[in-house]
Amino acid sequence: MTEQGILYIVPTPIGNLDDITERAIKTLSEVAAIAAEDTRHTRKLMQHYGIQNEVFALHEHNEIHRADAVIERLQQGDSLALVSDAGTPLINDPGYVIVHRCREQGLKVIALPGACAVTVALSAAGLPTDRFAFEGFLPSKPQQRRAKLEALKTEQRTIVVYESPHRILHALADMDTVLGNERQVVLARELTKQFETYLRGSAAELLQILTDDTNQQRGEMVLLIAPLQPDTEASEGPGESAKRTLLLLLEELPLKKAAAMTAKIHDERKNLLYQWALENRDNE
Length: 284
Ligand code: SAM
Prior knowledge:
Blueprint: E1 6-9, H1 22-30, E2 33-36, H2 39-49, E3 55-57, H3 63-75, E4 80-83, H4 96-104, E5 108-111, H5 117-125, E6 132-137, H6 142-152, E7 158-163, H7 168-179, E8 185-189, E9 197-201, H8 203-212, E10 221-225, H9 240-250, H10 255-266, H11 270-280
Parallel strand pairs: 1-4, 1-5, 2-3, 2-4, 6-7
Antiparallel strand pairs: 7-10, 8-9, 8-10
Helix pairs in contact: 3-4, 6-7, 7-8, 9-10, 10-11
This protein binds S-adenosylmethionine (SAM).
S-adenosylmethionine (SAM) is lined by residues 14-15, 84, 86-88, 91-93, 116-118, 162-164, 188-193, 220-222.
């Protein structure tokens, strides 16, 4: 019986061309052929790394149609590599149909580790990383986007979404409306590239920065939303360490300022701290 081929999932750089592994280059050189989201784009990349190999198209419009031929080729013993235009295939990129079919057929799939905008953004954004929810792109239609944000409002994990420069102002405006002033948002832009930038603040603050400096609206971007802190919910009041900071600051500062500073230090809600201080400052 012929030995079956292996489907390799091979990440490619998301900007900086040095971000490819030796194993990725070796795999792309040694497989029988490369299935690429955009053959022209991948050929350029291959040229850069000195890789010569057969490339064929496998994108969202032909993935279902091509699946049988790809499966057949693997069954006949050819190993294949799957690449997308940038980053990790299947992460908001084509590949799911093929991998699902391979698993159904008992074919071996091996994923190589590598660049992915979600994990790069998450690693450096400064938001909790112990748990996170990746939501792909937010809907492009305003009503659906706001509904999606409403559904995510009480999420207690860090939320990661991809966003396009054409919609970033609308997305931030909707985040401001739905999530309010207290929720921290991070905009991670042009990751691994020359103008890599992380901006952090409320959605309204980020909106202001982007409106003042239109360069900040350009390029590729990931948005991250801080988790809703369970201990800052209205019913429970601020956390103990935030209360201690607030009381200390109140010895030197007016209430509004002390609450704002404490909110920043502890990632708490300003209004909640303000309210708590009004009710408790004389008792503590
Ligand atoms: N598969 C890719 C990955 O692993 O990240 C994602 C592909 S998805 C079609 C493209 C989106 O990923 C972009 O619109 C942007 O939101 C995000 N992205 C890709 N590269 C990026 C970069 N260098 N900086 C920031 N975001 C990036």
